[in-house]
Structures are given as C-alpha cells and as structure tokens.
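Quick illustration for those who missed Monday's session on complexes.
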Amino acid sequence: MSKKILVLPGDGIGPEIMAQALAVLARLQRDFGLDIEIEHALVGGASYEASGRPLTDETLQRARAADAVLLGAVGGPRWESLDISLRPEKGLLGLRAGLGLFANLRPAVLYPQLAAASTLKPEVVSGLDLMIVRELTGGIYFGQPRGIRRLDNGERQGFNTLVYSESEIERIGRVAFETARKRGKRLCSVDKANVLECTELWREVMTRLQRDYPDVALTHMYVDNAAMQLVRAPKQFDVMVTTNMFGDILSDCASMLTGSIGMLPSASLNAAGQGMYEPIHGSAPDIAGQGIANPIGTILSAAMMLKYSLGAPQLAERVERAVSAVLDQGLRTADIHTPDTRRVGTGEMGAAIAAALG
Ligand code: NAD
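Prediction with nicotinamide-adenine-dinucleotide bound:
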C-alpha cells in the first residue's frame, strides 16, 4: 500500500531546497519502485500569510494522517515582530507537540570529501559518523512550574523545572538502544548524575534497560566531559542519548564538526514510528531566492524518512551513495565550496544527485 507523505516547504530557502528533495523522491518513484503519495501544505510564515496562523488545525490533522512529514524550514525577518504565538517557529513546535515527536535523531556524518571544510583538523574529524538521540518533548524545556516571580524582598527570580518520569526516560532509551543496535552497537548516555537527581534516575533507567540489549555496550558520561570529548576526539562516539537541553547544545556542537549546517538532516519520531524529517538549519533569509542554498540536508532528511518511516532502507542508502558520488565529482554549493571544486547552485546540485541515483 502506498505511504502518504505531507510536504511542508515553509519559508525562505525552504521551497528551494524542498524542490530538490522532491526531485530525488520523484526519481525513486519512477525508477526504483518507491510507492508514495505526496500532499502539500503550508507552515510557518507562509501559513500565517494565508490563514493568519503559523499552523492550522487542518494542516496538523493532515500531518497526523500522514505516514511521514517532510519539512523545509520556517521563519524570517518579516514575521519577527509578530506576537510570539503567531511566529513561524510556533508552527514547528505545534507540529512536534501535536504529533508527540519525543525522539530527535541527529546524525553528524563527515563526508571524507569535505574534511577540509570542517573547522577541526581533518585527522580529528575524517570518518566521523555519530548519531545523537535527543529527548524532545520533556525535561526542563517543558517542566512545571516555570516562570519569573517576585520574591518577598522585591527581587525577581526566574525558575524552571527539570523533570523526567521513568517512562519518559525508558522510551527515549529504547529508541537509542535500537538505533545503536542497527549501527556500531555502542551507546553513550550523557547526564549530570553527579549533581542532578533527575539525571541520576536517567542513568539508573538506562543501566536497567541495557539488560534488554546485551549486544549493545553502554557507557555513561557527564555532559561537561561529553562537550569536551566531542571537540577533542569525536570519533570515539557511535550513538549518544541525552536529555532535551543537553541534546540541544551537544547536537549543535556536533553539527559544526561536519563543515556546513547545510549538510545535516534530522528525524523526529513518535511512539508509532511516525516521523517528521527536516534539515537542521533554518530558513536562511540572507540567501533566500538566490538559488545558492545547499539542498543536501533536505535530501538526506528524505533519506532518513525512507529508512525510519517508509521501510525502505535500501533506497535510503541509494540516496546517501548518490550524495557521496556527486561530492566525488567535485560539485559544491557555495557553503562547502573550496578553490579546487566546481561551484553549483541549488538546482544543479539537486539534479546531479537525482541523476546519480543509478
Ligand atoms: P539559519 O540556519 O537559517 O542560517 C544560519 C546561516 O547558515 C546563514 O548564514 C545561512 O545562510 C546559512 N545556511 C543555512 N542553511 C543553509 C543551506 N542549506 N545552504 C547554505 N547555507 C545555509 O539560522 P538563522 O539565520 O539563525 O535563522 C534564520 C531564520 O530561520 C529565523 O527566522 C529562525 O527562527 C529560523 N530557524 C528555523 C529553523 C527550522 O525551521 N527548523 C531552525 C533554525 C532557525
């Protein structure tokens, strides 16, 4: 039975990079037996312009009814002065919450052809292939109580609550162990168990879960050390699992190891295996409309969708190989261009990857 995909191009470079991911999917449909039905809808600023809201109930319903959502990026200066509830980014948060996307998978892979584009020494990063599994709907970003209150002495005090229940830790833990099982079978759980009781429980639950995954080697690391190790020797990691806030920070740090933000995909999954897939970058208003954005993060997001929501891992690998082949040919968008390579625009990069599928 054909799978249903909801495509949300969004704002800024979103529609430009999405067009290239759709060209790759169209080729897979035409020549490699991919059976999908694609629907389109608006999100973010584009949705606000059409309906006065960054995410309509109808779009959320269509997202829930789809097997997967493929998103470009949202946001832009035009909507920055709106009330926070109407800003494009609220549309994204509404989708994450509305679909219950509790597991965020962010790979950081350095293509060997781009080793010179990283800010770290090539020998430190070449061959890097790690996956960060971040809890996305709990922890300190959502914990209650929260706010800014006035103390008896008149001074104001800001406060947030770091809270995780055992079941929340267990479900993200299982995603991480399953992910590690399909890769190098090594999982590093990142916490601050020496200071925070909440992550002491995190460590205890991860340790208990390991009994169900005897083939996966589990280690624990404090978050401050993990940040240092990511920059010192990132290749020691296979899969890392951590809380919402620690994951937010560590995954951005890991993304920079790979050279350009334009290269990296992400997946956010719920308990039913339904997912939303998007590049990790934003709508890049500074380059929107110029045809120079790198579409690879979006194309690799489509590859993650093939693997995690559409049950087509072979097609995902085909896409990844095509990206690598095009980098081998020396084609580069502006963000990864070096003097010895050929600079191409968004459309030419997308077309070359679609052509390299086989
Ligand atoms: P950004 O990721 O949009 O851009 C940061 C820098 O990276 C810019 O110089 C941009 O030109 C460059 N860049 C980003 N993607 C690129 C690509 N594919 N190819 C080449 N270069 C690329 O972050 P920002 O400038 O901080 O934010 C711009 C807007 O995007 C804001 O409105 C922000 O709220 C929004 N945003 C959205 C998301 C999302 O949709 N998931 C994520 C982050 C930021």
